Amino acid sequence: MTNDFVLEAITREFPESVISHDTPYDFLTLEIKKEDIKKVIHHLKDSSLQINFLTDICGIHYPETPEKEIGVIYHLHNMMTNFRIRLKTFMTRENAEVDSMTDLYAGANWMERETFDFYGIKFKGHPDLRVILNMEDLGYHPMLKEYRLEDGTRTDKDDKMFGR
Amino acid sequence: MSDNKPVIRMDAEAPEGFEGEGFFATKLSSVIGMARKFSLWPLPFATSCCGIEFMATLNPTFDASRFGMERNSFSPRQADMLMVCGTISKKLGPVLKQVYTQMAEPKWVIAVGACASSGGIFDTYSVLQGIDRIIPVDVYVPGCPPRPEQIIEGVMQVQALCEGESIRRRDLPEYQQLLASYDIK
């Protein structure tokens, strides 16, 4: 399995869904329309491409680009041929919701909970979408680039010492 | 034969009082204070690097046992000195508070190291910026991590506190107010 082969297979199957593609460091990366991401991943898993392992789901936040502010990134792996692929999908802040992959990959459950915890991205169809790492009453999604990283309530800390 | 054996003094200084033939009269507070001072039972709440330094403190090299803290209690009900060694995340905060609440009075708290004292370098959303946010602290030990000597110094500070503390201090309205301000019953 080569990058070109998989890219061609996907673009032939979903010509409308693939927005752009790139191979940074020889790692096939596709940007997929948000509505079609589940369809595409389902195809990758069940077709002869046999991309059978979900390595990671994570979020990303680009405050500078409002129409592509929130992103979800999927890393997939074919264990038989050791082929890896990365899929990205972007959405606006108001519309931060994508389909859950829990019925395709059981491992998506915790990864999506983590992504929800840190970015506030909702996953449609997730069986139990609640925070997983942060404390329940933290009250915000810390990895969005809009909260101060530090507590900010302590007055006795000397900024000189903390490199801020 | 070596004649340079170190002299180990095993006698504590007696508290103030009247001494006579076969009797010694002093305040109950002083006797209780002295007893508490030399029988502190620490509860090590060790989460990270400071915890390793605390373990070194218990080693024969530094030998915390010579301060009467021979037995490290891992049950809060049997301990009277809570030693918080290491980073406490916000998620762990309620656990620490529960441990403190379960300790029997009188109890003292040492915040060992920068993290327990103020959050240290972890100035971030997930880390409690000092355990004095959730429980009252008696002694802060600076350092990142502090050397065992510094931890021992903190213990000695607590010993000084125990010794001088009136046995009624914990019934004072100020103390009750302090606990109430932390929402501890």
TrEMBL record, chain A:
Documented EC number(s): 7.1.1.-
Family classification: Belongs to the complex I 30 kDa subunit family.
Positions in coiled-coil regions: none
Ranges of residues in domain NADH:ubiquinone oxidoreductase 30kDa subunit: 31-151
Gene name of this polypeptide: nqo5
Protein known as: NADH-quinone oxidoreductase
An MF annotation (GO) of this entry: NADH dehydrogenase (ubiquinone) activity
Pfam families registered for this protein in UniProt: Complex1_30kDa (PF00329)
Principal EC category: translocase
Function (record text): NDH-1 shuttles electrons from NADH, via FMN and iron-sulfur (Fe-S) centers, to quinones in the respiratory chain.
The reaction(s) this protein catalyses: a quinone + NADH + 5 H(+)(in) = a quinol + NAD(+) + 4 H(+)(out)
Superkingdom, taxonomy of origin: Bacteria
Keywords, alphabetical: NAD, Oxidoreductase, Quinone, Translocase, Transport
Automatic annotation (TrEMBL), chain B:
Single GO biological process annotation from the record: electron transport coupled proton transport
Protein name: NADH-quinone oxidoreductase subunit B
GO molecular function (one): quinone binding
Pfam families reported for this sequence: Oxidored_q6
Cofactor dependency: [4Fe-4S] cluster
Class of this enzyme: translocase
Cellular localisation: Cell membrane
Gene name, Swiss-Prot/TrEMBL: nuoB
Source organism per UniProt: Chryseobacterium salivictor
SUPFAM superfamilies given in the database record: HydA/Nqo6-like
